[in-house]
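Exercise 7b. Backbone tokens:
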């Protein structure tokens, strides 16, 4: 596997979802080429709108659309399944045939840590996921890291906290009348804005770091009800009533988020990548999101 740093960068994204889309826009804005896979044809228009080339999620389509020597960077943003990672299952050999590949990024989750009783965790902490999706994530992390070792390509694993952004946030939840203040004593969550994810990915993709793991979370892990309260305050809205976790009638998926409790340190990304958060905590973030909304309304 050569490391041809003079090659014009071309990013291939498997799974151009909410977080990955922000990174696509970043690289295209910096004059990189980009491609992204799709499984439903209706997604092609959104991919093209970002300035990327849509490619069907099949090895044959990918091989026909992009020569392997064009790819320099790969970002994987597709959740693993019980039967393994869908990208590795379908494209491992094709990825191995890319002679100019010099970086692989994998979007994982902080749920790989499992429950730590609200204590702080960092990238050296024990991973003990209790949820199946966390176990699948951890297995996928290991598989991608092994592939990178086999190919001589750095693999950067990004363990993401709860993702939000300009279009998906507590302000919108309060406005839509869907906000609830579910109380579980001692429970905290970390969060990360999609733009901060994109900035970390950009720094990593342009670094010379070997394979590594980075937590991407904000500076202030907080109880979820505090975020809702702040959103309501900023909007001048009534506070939704408090509901205990036992009475909340959450879906199995919703309840599962409360099964694991930890505070996630982000210092490694700051130290090694020079990462600086534009949205360091929920209070500053919600105020900034509201400010951007108001500016947009006047334009």
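Sequence design result:
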């Amino acid at each position: 596997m050569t490391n041809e740093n003079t090659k014009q960068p071309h990013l291939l994204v498997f799974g151009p979802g909410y977080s990955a889309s922000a990174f696509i826009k970043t690289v295209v804005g910096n004059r990189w080429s980009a491609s992204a896979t799709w499984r439903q044809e209706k997604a092609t228009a959104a991919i093209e709108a970002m300035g990327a080339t849509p490619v069907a999620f099949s090895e044959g389509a990918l091989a026909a659309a992009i020569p392997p020597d064009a790819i320099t960077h790969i970002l994987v943003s597709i959740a693993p399944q019980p039967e393994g990672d869908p990208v590795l299952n379908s494209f491992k050999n094709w990825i191995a045939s890319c002679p100019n590949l010099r970086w692989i990024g994998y979007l994982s989750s902080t749920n790989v840590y499992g429950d730590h009783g609200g204590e702080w965790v960092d990238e050296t902490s024990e991973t003990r996921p209790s949820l199946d999706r966390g176990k699948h994530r951890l297995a996928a992390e290991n598989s991608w890291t092994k592939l990178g070792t086999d190919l001589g390509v750095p693999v950067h694993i990004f363990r993401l906290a709860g993702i939000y952004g300009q279009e998906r946030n507590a302000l919108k939840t309060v406005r839509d009348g869907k906000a609830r203040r579910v109380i579980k004593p001692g429970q905290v969550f970390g969060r990360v804005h999609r733009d901060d994810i994109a900035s970390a990915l950009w720094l990593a993709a342009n670094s010379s770091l070997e394979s590594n793991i980075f937590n991407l979370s904000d500076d202030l892990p907080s109880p979820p009800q505090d975020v809702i309260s702040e959103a309501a305050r900023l909007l001048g809205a009534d506070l939704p009533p408090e509901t205990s976790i036992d009475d909340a009638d959450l879906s199995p998926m919703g309840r599962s988020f409360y099964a694991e409790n930890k505070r996630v340190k982000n210092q490694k990304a700051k130290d090694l990548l020079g990462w600086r958060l534009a949205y360091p905590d929920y209070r500053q973030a919600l105020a900034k999101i509201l400010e951007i909304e108001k500016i947009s309304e006047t334009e």
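Instructor comment: The first strand starts at residue 10 and ends at 14. The CA atoms of residues 158 and 214 lie 5 Å apart.
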